[in-house]
Specification:
The chain is 36% helix and 23% strand. It is α/β, with parallel strands linked by helices and 295 residues long. A hairpin with a 5-residue loop joins strand 2 and strand 3. The longest helix is centred in the C-terminal third of the chain and has 20 residues. It is globular.
């Protein structure tokens, strides 16, 4: 059997897989690399899945555990990159009483701007298989990815989620946001539509202040500002991304938390796109690795 681990900054997610890729066990803990002190990653691994280790012939590790802040830093596979490229560029480490530890690389692109990912690439491979299309992974640092026949061709990172958090917590436009906001789809869509309105000059930097000006003019309640700002930023992200990336049949595959994918789905539909979601993408990629017996 194999152990496959997605180890991010904030979480640890492990799968126990048989040689045919079937799932034999699964464990999750909120013990990301940021929660492991003094670089004690091996101790953490033994603590969480040590009883599995005697059953496994190898352990795959992906995500921020392979970054310079993690256990073993791996290089980035350059685009275009396939799942086999990831596997063949892995770094193998040996440790007493553990099966070989296979640290998988991330993916990077150099043109027109340097960009990189660690962990998201497995979700993309698992979701897309050998197909082609446009993928978005919503989050604090959303990834938009063009996939061709199972290879990551091009991608870009948008920091919309982190910028939204900063604006809401530490900016002039966020000062009017009350401690208790309401969940307003109407306010969110209003922000999306304004972000995608070409009749008004400028781009997102001109539109952000409207979160304050609308409230001061009585056209937006303070409790709606948070969702309105989210709509502005996600709407602007969607507008820019679909202008840069081609989407066959206007279809976009979303991979991420259901609540966030729902919001991106609303913004994408406003832009005339057809979104869909994929679940268990990381597991599918690990299953493909195990079945193919890559070392």
């Amino acid at each position: 059997m194999f152990i496959a681990i997605e180890w991010t900054s904030m979480a640890f997610h492990a799968f126990l897989l048989s040689h045919d890729g079937s799932l034999r066990g699964e464990r999750q803990e909120a013990r990301g690399i940021n929660h492991v002190g003094d670089g004690a990653f091996e101790n953490a691994l033994r603590d969480i899945v040590g009883d599995w280790a005697t059953k496994a012939s190898r352990i795959y590790l992906a995500g921020m555990i392979t970054s310079r802040n993690g256990w073993v830093e791996t290089p980035y596979a350059q685009t275009p990159a396939s799942l086999s490229d990831i596997a063949t560029q892995a770094v193998v480490k040996h440790s007493d009483s553990l099966p070989p530890l296979i640290f998988l690389p991330g993916v990077s692109v150099r043109d027109p701007l340097p960009d990189m990912m660690r962990g998201e690439e497995l979700k993309i491979f698992g979701a897309m298989g050998q197909s082609s299309g446009l993928v978005v992974l919503p989050g604090a640092h959303s990834k938009w990815v063009s996939v061709k026949e199972g290879r990551i061709e091009h991608f870009a990172t948008y920091m919309s989620g982190e910028i939204a958090t900063l604006l809401k917590s530490n900016s002039l436009v966020g000062k009017l946001i009350p401690d208790q906001s309401i969940d307003s789809q109407e306010a969110f869509l209003r922000g999306v539509r304004l972000a995608q309105e070409s009749r008004i000059g400028g781009h997102i930097l001109r539109r952000i202040f409207s979160a304050r000006s609308y409230a001061l003019c009585g056209e937006l309640s303070p409790a709606e500002i948070s969702d309105y700002l989210s709509g502005l930023l996600i709407g602007a992200e969607v507008r820019e991304a679909i202008a840069e990336f081609s989407a066959p049949d206007n279809h976009v595959t979303m991979i991420g938390a259901p609540s966030l994918c729902r919001r991106y789905g609303l913004a994408l539909r406003e832009a005339g796109m057809m979104p869909s979601t994929i679940d268990n993408a990381v597991l599918r990629a690990f299953q493909a690795l195990c079945i193919s017996r890559w070392e």
